[in-house]
């Protein structure tokens, strides 16, 4: 009876979150540097679905469909992937300080990104322009996977993967990548440095259907697959040996979660730059609000991450219009005070975080 | 129920936010009427392009510019589309301009692609930072904004400046060594090496480029400075200001071991004028030449032109 009630509450919460996300997405389409009214948006969307509606402005239509919509889709995917990966890794490590970057993903990607930005122009002579635009995301993605793989290899013992060593190895790899980045930056010119600074603060504005068409699967598929791990994560919350007694294949789950998170976050970072904070804080906020059940927290973190990033993007591109702020600044500015407030009130109420 | 409240509050906030967005610009339907070429509304991205547009007499048609558009100063009171990597497509589209002029390295390639998809006419210029390129761009812009006659006159003025420059340089008896230092505070000093605007301009001014083995921008080290041993050191106005003036510049390590430091021969000029290779490049070179060739003052060449 109790389980059934939980299920209904969970679906109610998830349902409301989805409703909020849809609401946010629509508002995000509506606001921007260029004013497009709700009526026009509906017309443009209907027009493109083949309905015969009133004439739509070609310019508004282009802005909506080839600038705003792709970045909205990318934002939802990236926010979702960061949120769910954060939740899964925190669950796996049973450590609330973990965020996707801690296993080396972000800095591995950043290192390869800065290499491409600094040395790419000399490579560009050998590549077609089409390949050049792909070079950065592909390099960043391989960098993130490589860094995680190295950290993971250190933590792999004879019988089991030691998550503490994985975190420490991740920290070490992150520091090493930072040092190597320093060397590359030393050789960079101002243009490359500026591009890298912006990249490292995150940016969704480069989204185009071409890029998304391919990369979205690398972000969404692993993220969705992570949802399926919630039962095992709940069991592992009791401790690894207890989970083993419950029949959970602990090692397999560890591999799977690390691989899936690295894929989802790596692809996200490759497409949108390093957007911090979401993977760390969204799961926390949801856990404080709704309790630690991974069946709820994993999908809720995905939706929560998507909402947060969509709202942040909306602010980033309107607050200083006609130009834009890097999105990472907004996520941190919005989320940190809220997070600290939640921590403070949780302490007052003596809630276990 | 508590949760539902949380959601309705957030939803309400979001709705409120959506109403607070920037004012709904009443969009002019550019599709229906061909815009009058005389009154084209221009967004100009890149300091040199903006300077050219203004020199052609169309400054009042510029409705927005980027942060590098500093000449004339009035451009900086216009809405700014941002600075290089920060320039985004939707912001530019929202200005409701008729055309966008942009310098290639002042705007990301993907932003150009996005702008093209909105059917907003955008002209991207590759500026090679030499006089030939300047003349070409002036002519092209003249054609685009329907100021062809003015463009011809502007090119003629530039050519006249260059002739005066040539005749001045032919009178010089020395070829001082000059180094350009890009400064953004004492912690961020770079030597401007070969393949940069500085090499071209310093040679135009009848000076000798003080570094032979340094390409592009490299961090300034005291040893490199001493090894270059320039007679003059040139800064942007803003660069020298960022250091705290000539006195502060003389404190740079290694500076006093150079002729420039010893004789306090530190120069500073407007950044865009110096590096932009705009319509005033000839005059900029003349100004630089007169400040490093004392013999020219005696001949009074500058005044005779």
What separation lies between the terminal Cα atoms of chain B? 84 Å
**Number of helices, where a helix is a run of at least 4 consecutive DSSP H or I residues of chain B:** 15
Q: For the report, how would you describe the main beta sheet of chain A? A: none
Q: Bin the strand percentage of chain B.
A: 5-15%
CATH A-level architecture of the largest domain in chain B: 3-Layer(aba) Sandwich
Class by SSE composition of chain B: alpha/beta
Number of strands of chain A: 0
Helix content of chain B: 40-55%
Uncertain regions spanning at least 5 consecutive residues of chain B? 13-34, 301-305
| Tally of helical runs of chain A | 14
Q: Flag low-confidence runs of chain A.
A: none
CATH topology-level fold name of the largest domain in chain B: Rossmann fold
Q: Report the CATH superfamily of the largest domain in chain B.
A: Nitrogenase molybdenum iron protein domain
What secondary-structure arrangement, pairings included, does this model have?
The complex is a heterodimer of chains A (353) and B (305).
Chain A: H1 2-30, H2 38-48, H3 58-93, H4 105-123, H5 129-155, H6 163-186, H7 190-200, H8 209-227, H9 230-236, H10 240-245, H11 250-272, H12 278-290, H13 294-316, H14 327-348
Helix pairs in contact in A: 1-13, 2-3, 3-8, 3-11, 3-12, 3-13, 4-5, 4-6, 4-7, 4-11, 5-6, 5-11, 8-11, 8-13, 9-13, 12-13, 12-14, 13-14
Chain B: H1 2-20, E1 42-45, H2 47-55, E2 62-65, H3 89-94, E3 99-103, H4 109-117, E4 122-125, H5 131-144, H6 148-171, E5 177-183, E6 189-192, H7 197-204, E7 208-209, E8 217-219, H8 222-228, E9 232-236, H9 237-243, H10 245-250, H11 259-262, E10 266-269, H12 271-275, H13 281-292, H14 294-299, H15 301-304
Parallel strand pairs in B: 1-2, 1-3, 3-4, 5-7, 5-9, 9-10
Antiparallel strand pairs in B: 5-6, 6-8
Helix pairs in contact in B: 5-6, 6-13
């Amino acid at each position: 009876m109790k389980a059934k009630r939980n299920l209904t509450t969970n679906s109610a919460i998830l349902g409301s979150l989805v409703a909020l996300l849809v609401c946010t997405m629509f508002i995000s389409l509506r606001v921007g540097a260029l004013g497009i009214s709700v009526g026009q948006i509906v017309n443009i969307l209907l027009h493109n679905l083949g309905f015969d509606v009133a004439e739509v402005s070609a310019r508004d239509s282009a802005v909506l469909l080839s600038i705003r919509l792709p970045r909205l889709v990318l934002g939802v995917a990236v926010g979702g992937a960061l949120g769910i990966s954060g939740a899964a890794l925190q669950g796996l490590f049973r450590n609330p300080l973990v965020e996707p970057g801690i296993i080396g993903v972000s800095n591995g990607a950043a290192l390869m990104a800065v290499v491409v930005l600094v040395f790419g122009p000399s490579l560009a002579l050998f590549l077609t322009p089409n390949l050049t635009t792909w070079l950065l995301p592909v390099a960043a993605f391989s960098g993130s996977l490589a860094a995680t793989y190295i950290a993971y290899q250190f933590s792999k013992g004879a019988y089991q993967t030691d998550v503490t060593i994985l975190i420490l190895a991740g920290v070490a790899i992150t520091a090493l990548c930072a040092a190597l980045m320093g060397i590359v930056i030393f050789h960079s010119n101002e243009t490359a440095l500026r591009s890298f600074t912006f990249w490292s603060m995150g940016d969704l504005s480069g989204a185009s259907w071409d890029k998304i068409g391919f990369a979205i699967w690398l972000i969404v598929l692993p993220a969705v697959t992570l949802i399926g791990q919630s039962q095992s994560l709940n069991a592992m919350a009791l401790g690894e040996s207890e989970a083993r007694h419950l029949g959970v294949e602990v090692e397999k789950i560890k591999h799977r979660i690390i691989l899936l998170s690295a894929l989802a976050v790596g692809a996200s970072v490759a497409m949108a730059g390093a957007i911090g904070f979401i993977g760390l804080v969204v799961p926390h906020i949801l856990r404080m609000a709704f309790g630690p059940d991974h069946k709820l927290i994993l999908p809720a973190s995905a939706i929560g991450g998507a909402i947060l990033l969509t709202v942040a993007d909306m602010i980033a591109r309107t607050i200083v219009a006609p130009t834009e702020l890097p999105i990472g600044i907004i996520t941190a500015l919005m989320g940190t005070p809220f997070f600290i407030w939640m921590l403070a009130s949780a302490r007052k109420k003596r809630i276990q975080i | 129920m508590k949760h539902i409240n949380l959601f309705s509050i957030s939803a309400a906030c979001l709705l409120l936010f959506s109403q607070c967005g920037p004012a709904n610009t009443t969009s002019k339907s550019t599709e229906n009427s061909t815009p009058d070429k005389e009154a084209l509304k221009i967004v100009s991205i890149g300091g040199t392009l903006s300077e050219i547009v203004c020199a052609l007499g169309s400054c009042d048609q510029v409705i927005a510019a980027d942060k590098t558009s500093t000449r004339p100063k009035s451009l900086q009171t216009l809405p700014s589309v941002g600075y290089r990597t920060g320039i985004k497509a939707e912001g530019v589209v929202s200005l409701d301009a008729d055309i966008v002029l942009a310098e290639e390295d002042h705007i990301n390639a993907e932003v150009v692609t996005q702008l093209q998809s909105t059917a907003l006419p955008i002209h991207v210029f590759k500026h090679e930072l030499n006089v030939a390129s300047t003349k070409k761009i002036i002519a092209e812009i003249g054609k685009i904004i329907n100021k062809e006659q003015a463009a011809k006159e502007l090119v003629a003025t530039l050519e006249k400046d260059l002739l005066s420059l040539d005749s001045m340089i032919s009178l010089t008896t020395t070829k001082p060594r000059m180094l350009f230092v890009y400064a953004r505070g004492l912690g961020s000093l770079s030597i401007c090496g070969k393949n940069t605007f500085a090499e071209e301009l310093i040679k135009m001014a009848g000076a000798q480029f003080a570094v032979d083995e340094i390409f592009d921008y490299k961090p300034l080290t005291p040893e490199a400075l001493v090894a270059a041993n320039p007679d003059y050191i040139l800064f942007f106005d803003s660069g020298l200001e960022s250091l705290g003036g000539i006195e502060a510049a003389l404190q740079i390590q290694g500076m006093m071991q150079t002729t420039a430091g010893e004789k306090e021969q530190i120069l500073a000029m407007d950044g865009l004028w110096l590096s932009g290779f705009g319509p005033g490049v000839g005059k900029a070179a003349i100004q630089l030449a007169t400040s490093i060739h004392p013999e020219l003052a005696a001949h009074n060449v500058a005044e005779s032109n």
